[in-house]
Amino acid sequence: MSKIVAQKLIVYFIYVATCIFYTSSTFAQPFINEIKAFRKADSIAKPPKHAVLLIGSSSFTKWKDVQDYFPEHTMLNRGFGGSSLTDVIYYANDVVLKYKPKQILIYCGENDIAGSSSVTADTVLERFKTLYTIIRSKFKKVPIGYISMKPSPSREKLLPIYVKGNEYIKNFLAGQKNTDFIDVYPSMFDANGKILTHIFIADKLHMNAEGYKIWQGIIAPYLIK
What we know:
Elements: H1 3-24, H2 32-44, E1 52-56, H3 58-61, H4 66-69, E2 75-79, H5 85-90, H6 92-97, E3 103-107, H7 110-115, H8 121-138, E4 144-147, H9 159-174, E5 179-182, H10 209-219
Helix pairs in contact: 1-8, 8-9
């Protein structure tokens, strides 16, 4: 068995294990109401083809007016809740694979680390590889951009893990075709190396319009015309 085939089998088994965990859990499926809302929206109005598809956690979920930031592009936002990479993997059919995007942007991983002290940068990398492989199983050449995990005042103690996780994902993507690592991290600090607190809302975790304005300037050059 070749190394590539073995890696694909490992990813497949991780994906299956994730699905089994969720479906066999005694707890309700996480974020299911948001996923149902996506399904309903898609049934009412056919989702656009060749859009820039946003998937991931709440930094995308709360970017409700993302289309206004990129008027020259068709944006389709399928970020949901405070999702982790395992959540996006589980709902991949609903938030990624059912669409026909021209480009996919991912913001996820921050909640994986914040959600459990046992999750390391290596864990995030392996979860990201699983999601990446699932996406590539259908979209062989669609450009994929990963937006770096951001520094948030409320999670400042986790920044060393975020930095390492960003580095690992950046290095992984450097070996893949049609990918970009979109680094928003350094632009969210002031000249003294302090996090720009004024770009966050009261919870010190999510961004306000000024924060998204910073992201706009960094992301725009990567979007395919």
